[in-house]
Write a structure and sequence with these properties.
The protein is mainly beta. Helix content is 5%, strand content 51%.
Length: 377
């Protein structure tokens, strides 16, 4: 029955929006893919007149986090290659894909003891996104892939801490999902997912004047989301708590701990607002039903069979003029286990190259400092 969940959402969307086409022909799953300033175009697979275009990006990223002392730190290097685009078969229907391969190298110390050493840039390579399927300009995208259970929480994907305290699914991005996504011409937005392995499913319903990531001036969006996975919250340096987790359960999940209840849902209301090219704010308010575990029990254990209660997180980014210069941002969050305040300062050399410094203050947990650079080619 649950296998048909995404298809039921698709049918519902079509039935209530038979006169509403997708927002435009400039991408549904791959947002803004026809913009020739996006990435390095692959001419062999590009035919702009027929709305077909493929492009790739290279990214090199380094980051470091330090806990209470220099003896508690973690660092990492990442190099990634991402191929995206769409090939149209007809005026309405095409093949779309997002293939993002990322190689990682990590180094870490805990109490002065090395817990992860450098492996000559050969530690791990894995898919960050692996998405492919069909996209209709009218009926939206139906794809198979590796991605998140819900979509709307990505409004908070600003800086390094925006998505850490929104009760997102602890499993993160997982393969084996059937996903549906559509931004209709009347600005309604629908996204749904079903994981063929864990049977975790999610739904987003919203209203948006533009897709999340292109940073269109004066755009905004508001969404309602729900999923039956395992919500998590960050408690500070190297510390998280997870809900709906059970050592003795046989209900599958996308983490090392199984779920306690496949009917325990995490609900959220989220939204973003872009202020011209001056700034951007995003907020996520989430709720999952708790059990009788005390706050301290959950903090000490790191998980609970119940949910994580009520949480709220807001991030604001100041965008520098011309996308060059200083870009301060701040994330503030509150939940039933801790309060956090995270100022960060970025310097944008241009839209594709930036450095970030930040500090994470938390009321129950370990404060941490963060440094990062990112280069997109």
């Amino acid at each position: 029955m649950r296998f048909f969940y995404p298809f039921a959402i698709l049918a519902l969307s079509v039935s209530v929006s038979t006169s509403s086409y997708a927002k435009n022909k400039d991408g549904n799953w791959i947002e803004n893919y026809l913009d020739r300033d996006n990435g390095s175009e692959i001419s062999r697979f590009t035919d702009i007149e027929n709305n077909s275009r493929w492009y790739y990006n290279l990214r090199f990223q380094g980051k470091s986090d330090i806990g209470k002392t220099i003896d508690d730190r973690s660092s990492g290097l990442e190099a990634s290659l991402r191929l995206r685009g769409k090939t149209m078969f007809t005026d309405d229907l095409g093949f779309t894909g997002d293939f993002w391969l990322k190689a990682k190298e990590n180094y870490a110390k805990a109490d002065g003891v090395r817990t992860n050493k450098y492996d000559d840039l050969d530690e791990e390579a894995a898919w960050e996104n692996l998405i492919f399927g069909l996209e209709s300009n009218r009926f939206g995208s139906l794809v198979y892939g590796k991605h998140t259970a819900t979509w709307a929480g990505l409004v908070a994907d600003i800086g390094n801490y925006g998505v850490k305290n929104i009760q997102a699914d602890a499993g993160g991005k997982n393969a084996g999902k059937v996903l549906y996504k559509n931004h209709f011409e009347n600005n309604l937005f629908v996204h749904s997912s079903y994981d063929l392995n864990s049977e975790i499913y999610g739904l987003d319903l919203g209203y948006q004047t533009a897709n999340i990531y292109p940073f269109r001036p004066d755009s905004y969006g508001i969404y309602f989301s729900a999923y039956n996975g395992q919500p998590f919250l960050n408690m500070g340096y190297n510390s998280t708590i997870m809900g709906n987790a059970d050592l003795n359960s046989d209900i599958k999940s996308d983490t090392a701990l199984n779920r306690h209840d496949d009917h325990l849902f995490t609900y959220s209301i989220s939204g973003y607002k872009q202020f011209g090219f001056k700034g951007r704010i995003a907020t996520v308010i989430a709720y999952s039903d708790r059990n009788d575990d005390s706050d301290e029990q959950v903090r000490q254990r790191g998980y609970t069979a119940g949910g994580l209660g009520l949480s709220a997180s807001t991030t604001y980014l100041h965008i520098p003029e011309g996308f060059k210069g200083w870009a301060p941002l701040v994330t503030a969050s509150h939940d039933e286990f801790t309060n956090k305040f995270t100022p960060q300062m970025q310097y944008w050399f241009d839209p594709s190259m930036r450095v970030t410094l930040g500090y994470d203050f938390t009321s129950h947990g370990e404060n941490s400092a963060h440094a990062e650079f990112q280069i997109d080619l």
